[in-house]
Fold (S)-3,5-dihydroxyphenylglycine transaminase.
Amino acid sequence: MTGRTTPSGASRPPLSLDEYAERARTRLTPAVWDFIEGGAGEERTLAANRAAFDRTRLSPRVLTGAGECDPSTTILGRRWAAPVAVAPMAYHTLMHSDGETATARAAGAAGLPLVVSTFAGRTFAEIAAAATSPLWLQVYCFRDRATTRRLIEHAEAAGIEALVLTVDTPRLGRRLRDLRNDFRLPPHITPANLPADDADYSSPSEHGRTGLDPALDWSVIDWLRSVSRLPVLVKGVMTAEDARRAIAAGVDGIVVSNHGGRQLDGAPATLDVLAPIAAAVDGRCALILDGGVRRGRDVLGALALGADAVLLGRPVLHGLAVAGGVGVAGVLDLVLDELSEAMTLTGTATVADASLLTGPEGTSPARHRPSGGTPRHDRPRPPEPTAELHKRDLHRSVSDPVLDTMNFLNEITGRFPDVVSFAPGRPYEEFFDKDEILDHIRRYLDHLAAGGASDEAIRTALYQYGPTAGQIRGLISDSLRADEGIDAPPGAIVVTVGAQEGMLLALRALFADPGDVLLVASPCYVGITGAASLLGVPVHPVEERADGLDVADVEAAVLAERARGRRPRAFYVVPDHSNPSGNTMSRRAREELLELAARHDLLILEDSPYRLVSPGVQLPTLKSMDHARRVIHLGSYSKSVFPSARVGFVVADQPVRDPSGAESLLADELAKIKSMVTVNTPALSQAAVAGALLACGGRLTERNAVPAKHYGEALRVTLEQLDRHFPEDVRDRLGIGWNRPSGGFFLTVRVPFPADNAALLRSAEDHGVIWTPMAYFYPGPGGERSIRLSFSYLSPAEIEDGIARLAAFLQAEIERPGATGPTSGRDT
Ligand SMILES: Cc1cc2nc3c(=O)[nH]c(=O)nc-3n(C[C@H](O)[C@H](O)[C@H](O)COP(=O)(O)O)c2cc1C
């Protein structure tokens, strides 16, 4: 260790990060010192960062019984020894020839992550070989996106775990010290992970001006997601509003940063903007702060104001300059030691408790006020600390808006119980008889007895765990043959808890590689996109045209994904009376889709729950037309029997060969997965559905003749009322239109204004009618000016009343000033 010589002649390690800085200064050339130490302009922001921490006061708390403190924390699912990581900084090789490898080794020894700069001086492979703790990549987005993409791909190949997009650098700030020094990198200092071609990296500011993309907007997050599946953080957010935008863009974390005062001089100190940003973020993603952290207690101060962790910048470079990796280790150990001291003296047992501390010159939060003069024996026992979970530590799907889609609707329905609701896609309740369910179960038991089953066997079938793939597969197989022309042996069927479980099983089994993509017709039933989100399956929406799905669009999507190096694995579609659009694929389109599937080795997930409750003759299912076993058919009895049974099924007759050459069916593999999901579909539910199938000889079309007529009538009344309120000339003038499905539960109405949650609220509040914004069903942008009307749950009289209310709402909305301006997304 290179320490200074004390008056007594002994060399001692630095006792503070400032001492490290002092020693580093003497070891570096003035120009390099200025390069790392300097800020932009008059360095007001640089100074403000530190001053904000200097103002911070932490109140000591005594006799808390906290004992040994635990500074460890979990960020993006990984345990860190303390809430500190090394900030991304260019060219560690300027400080020491080992550069980032030394830093990575020291960070690993301390159990802290390193954020590797786009301009690292050592290669990702070298850094990864030295690292033993998480590595993240800081990303600068270049004008040439291909360079950025390759950078990310190389980093991913080396095992980088997250991307930190720096968003405060459309150009480099004017750093006067560098300008005065005419600072240039020595020829041997180059960015090891960027192309060494014609780019001149010697002047960072000059390269920044020509290389960095100055026109980035929030869509860059989508772009990053399209090139990488890694978590994405944005670094450089300084306002609550931008934090909200970042969350809306789907980031996994935010770094509150002013780039260590090196960009906009005059920007506030990061610590000063932290609290409002933390309030806006509200635990929805990881929140990290950097700038001016120079002591362990600064870490605690940032945590107290809502940060989950901090990045340490310049002090790491100081350590590196002083003694290479040993110096970095010294710096990190010192910070952790100081943090431990601060935690212990403030009675902060864990980092979660840090939120209870005082902020800068703040006051102690009420939770920590002493309990006053209450006599000891009367005092209530302090409450047991409850386990507190953070959303950011949960799987990212729980923050996916898809999984939240229906919350707003439910909330509105609860608040306005008297509205006419065109929202729920539910069967009409008048068709249910409270005693019929018992008859169904009785009939099934009689059927088992008639088949020779003993009382004991029947008892077992009803009360015990059952076969995973289901116990009514024979009846389902017969019914599919009678009703749908689908020839599926019982062994090719798995009985599921609703079609929803079928989707989950099929996706889990089929999507084995991160490059496998699910294509979906869009707008799309949220059950499938939600399941894909749970499983981390990437989704590529294929947009329906006004008159339905065009198979050429599916092919274009297949080719586009192939060009990106991903494998389109399956296409999900509701061919008949689709939810949500109501469209039906023509026979020709079905044939074309099957041909396309054969041509491109694509599987089709066919989901068709509305056929058997729709009037008239239905087109053949894709599965009945499928002679090459390309179609996996997802079935549901929710509409054709009743939804509370939660019984569905999958027909998966695809042969699966294992390495020894043995063959099974995909259904067998799905059953294995099911054994770890729901074990088996409840026997009671299967018995009820079986009884219903037996009652009609498996012919659900016959059983549903009356409901199908009713739903057809509901559709007719809905269309008739729309026509009545908006005759052709009126609807053309107003810019309103709708499709005319031939069955199902839904239709789409196009409107000339944004049909968003705010409009829905006005519709409920002022006009007593509810519908579903079509945008809910688009995996990407789209549907902003369309609504879904569901007519299945309403009587003709309610529909008549509801459409009159809807007409009044549409009229009022069109007359609202500015309501019919353009939207950013596509309309349907
Ligand atoms: C020499 C130096 C190089 C830097 N290079 C980068 C970089 O390549 N990418 C980036 O996002 N931030 C970069 N930063 C900013 C840091 O990541 C961080 O925001 C800042 O240094 C934190 O402030 P602190 O140094 O006061 O701790 C750099 C900072 C310094 C001092």
User: Anything to note?
Assistant: The first strand starts at residue 4 and ends at 5. The CA atoms of residues 93 and 99 lie 4 Å apart. Residues 36, 49, 87-90, 117-119, 138, 166, 235, 257, 259-260, 262, 290-293, 312-314 surround flavin mononucleotide (CB under 6 Å). The domain at 14-356 is CATH 3.20.20.70 (TIM Barrel).
